[in-house]
Protein 1
Amino acid sequence: MNSSEQAEVLQHMEKFGDVLNNLTHNLLLRLLSGKKLEVNPLLNTDRMMGMLSRSVKVDPGDVLQKQLSFMEKQLNLWQNAAKAMTGGDFDSIVEEAKGDGRFVDEEWKQNPFFNFIKQSYLLNAELLQQTVDSLEFKDNKLSQQLKFYTRQYINSLSPSNYILTNPEICREILETKGDNLAKGIDNFIRDLESSPFEALKVNQVDVNAFTVGETLAYTPGKVIYENELIQLIQYSPATEQVYQVPLLIIPPFINKYYILDLDEK
């Protein structure tokens, strides 16, 4: 890699780092100032932020210490990145948690560009998580809500989620000459066409690959109660004798009721 190419890669690294840092600091400022957060519409955001401003205790010294530690690690990360661009080893400032499957590809470790992106993301994630964890809440439920939202926010920013910052996807683009992107767009359009008006429904399988009664079992039953949250299905008995008290099964929401009808067993 010549000097101009090295400079271009470093510019991309700096741009990514600045964007991620700005997002992290913006969220921290909102958390610490009590400003409104645009979160899941199922949450009462006004109530949540009002409670946050009244029931959370912030230690300014602790927050400042975490910021200084973050800045020091960022400086070390940049020094390591510059050293790696000239052929040196890229030492790790921060490592992903054990079992984190997002960064198993060797490019995250061996390629200076992707290594920098990974570590920059992990540093910002660490700062956010530590800051929220250090807040002292009077309301435990509010504490759990805020920590849950923070985890979702952090996960949504993972570089593994985006095309140009995921080495596996970049490699597949080159190997397939972009055919993987074309297929992905086709699948996305198909999902849009089959989605309800107010939401995106993502199909996990080929919807034409299954036939009820052949490749999918079918248990006769009917909806005996429903409201805005649930449908209660009573399946018809398949034996001559049944228990007097019915068995109520509540499967995970993501699988809904049809997980019970996947096969004859």
Protein 2
Amino acid sequence: MPDIDPTSAENIFLIVKDREKILFSDIAKAVSSTNERGAFDVLPRHTNFITLAREFLTVHKSDGTQTKLDLGASGVAVVKVFKNKVQVFLGVTSATK
């Protein structure tokens, strides 16, 4: 995991994992998704929180491009934001309606 200044105003570190492997691990400008309240974005120096993301995760990369990641069969992922690092865990819960 790269050493990132937790007060950086420019980047966050994102890691996306399932039960078997790391699917994404890199520096990003922002991360977007939806939860039970609607759309949300995680930006550098975001407050610490945990949520259940639904359907997709959009990674806004440092080079200006975007990557949209499907959240798998369950369509749900646990997102943990702590000290400028975003950890996303796939396959640990199922969608409830």
Protein 3
Amino acid sequence: PAFSLRADALLWPLVVGVCALVLVGGVTNVVEVFLVRGSLRASPTAFGLLAGLLAAGLVVGAVAAGRSAPDPRRALRAAAAALALALALVFGGLAPTVWAFALAWATLGVANGVLNADVSTLVLHRTPESFRGQVLARVNAMVRSSEIVALAIGGAAGSLLGPRATFVAGGTLMAAVAVALLVRIRPQLAEPVDSRPLSADIPSRSSG
């Protein structure tokens, strides 16, 4: 027997959803410095503190998501975290002051930490041990490819829309993706706690 990532009706939509989130939300990475240093007129020190605040939020979110939970609950929490992350981006784009942006950035960090921890845990839990290296490599390649495309789009979006509008547009698209993800995985949320595919036939088109 072989394992197919695409055959997992809960895990595959989450992985694809994360890639879509990275693609539409990652555009803000390019214009972040222009929003904070330009539009909000933050000092270099404040910009560095915001980066530290984001990192702290990531740690808090990862720790909060570290407790054991059934797969459906983790998937639901990941989708909710994705929506919170999207709304934080929108609020960050509309923030009138650095302090307001800091609140959005802390929220974004926590939500991102929860999302990363839950999706990573689901990938590990639902993948047979002998296939984990292959699946992790495939998922990592998908996410990194989305990041590269997002950087290219972010440069164009920043030039056309400006930093604030890019944040708002990216966050709005992320919210749409998060809602679509929740709708997509909703039928799987009622599955038994211990139900997870341990093996499946590889479909005709390679999927991981």
